[in-house]
Amino acid sequence: MASATSSISGLASGLDTASIIDQLMQLEQVPQDKLKTSQDSENSVISALRALNTDTALLASKAATLAKASTWQTLQGTSTGTGVSVAVTDKASAASFSLTVDRLATTHQLGFSTGAALTDVVAGSQIKITGSDGVPHSISVGGGTLQEMVTAINGSTADTGVKATAVRVSDGSYRLIAESTKTGAASAFTLTKDDGSDLLGGAAVRAGTDAQINMGLGITATSASNTFTDIVPGVNITLAQNTAIGTTSSVTVKQNVSTISSSLSSFVDQINSLLDKIDTQTAVKSGTTAAGVLVGDPTARALRDQLLNTVFGDSTTSMATYGVQTDRYGKLVFDATAFEKAYAADPAGTAAKFTSGATPAQDGWVARVSAVSKGASDGLDGTFANAINGHTSTVDRLQKSIEDWDTRLELRRSSLERQYTALETALSTLQSQSTWLSSQISSLPTYS
């Protein structure tokens, strides 16, 4: 229809009717343009809310971890002996003791005296492995060659606790070595023919041993492995395989608050970063500075207030004694020295001021931050989700209005095009009639 108008534009009137229609349509389109501007504004708000929601969800995740009592297990074990390592559990308490390594845990080994080729038949169709518990296991070895026997021992589904290797020696033959898969005195076993007679001429034995450490004053401790579990409650000592016999070590278990202090400092920085973003998005116009996208939106401002209010457990106490407080700029400040002093004086009591309590009313500061940030960022009924849903509904409603205006404007353009087409047609007809009359008048005879 636009092309038809263009073809007759000004044909009779000399007017650029196409441009006139376009200008009139620009005026008609003003209400729709305002709707589009409102829609763009709403989409900007949605994008800003989603970005804040993501940051709040990350804060909630960090808070949930830091609010767990297990995260506050700050006891750390140290050892002065090379090859002696210390691990502590949540059952540990401060401790200090010395030890000397008397013996490492070893496996039980059998080295058989008669060499053979891998293809030599050295046993019947079965062999027997008997563990220290006295339970025999008959193992099928096929044709009974040395290679078949090694393969059968290593591939057995029975719980023999034994592995085997054929080792080539200087004369080119192979000697069988069988070894327990576990260490300790209880790892002993025998490997014989199925009838109990010697295999490959019998074996030399290296008996498995338990590891042993000497705690002094005639006190020793043994372990089937090189790990001594709960050597004192909650403390495990592990000896490396290359630990020298006679190694002495001083073991100390004490509080190491630096890790948790560092985590709290990072946590406060994360909160302040979120507060900065909220301030930017909700800022009012000032001088040449444009207003934030979320100016006037209550969701982000409410979260800001709630996060700052978490430093007050109730109306009378705050977290200042434990190193967390607000400053005059509305941000959080973490004083590591104050925190570490409070923790050194009362580790359990200080941890309780931060972690989850038996009830929400007993929650510490980090747990309160966790509750606030989760309440804001929850994907189903969080305050951000509700706000985003509300603005999304507005965008949908505006889109419907914009589409309605598209139809309305199309009809208006069609109406204007018909009107101007009719005008050009009428003017063209009048011009034709005028030309005809002029020609008729000119053809009349003249009289002097």
UniProtKB/TrEMBL annotation:
Q: Which UniProt keywords apply?
A: Bacterial flagellum, Cell projection, Cilium, Coiled coil, Flagellum, Secreted
Cell compartments where the protein resides: Secreted; Bacterial flagellum
Location of the Flagellar hook-associated protein 2 C-terminal domain:
209-431
Flagellar hook-associated protein 2 N-terminal domain sequence ranges: 13-108
Principal subcellular localisation of the protein = secreted
Query: Is this entry keyworded Secreted?
Result: yes
Q: What job does this protein perform?
A: Required for morphogenesis and for the elongation of the flagellar filament by facilitating polymerization of the flagellin monomers at the tip of growing filament. Forms a capping structure, which prevents flagellin subunits (transported through the central channel of the flagellum) from leaking out without polymerization at the distal end.
Q: Summarize the subunit comment.
A: Homopentamer.
What name is this protein filed under?
A: Flagellar hook-associated protein 2
What is the species listed in this Swiss-Prot or TrEMBL entry?
A: Nocardioides hankookensis
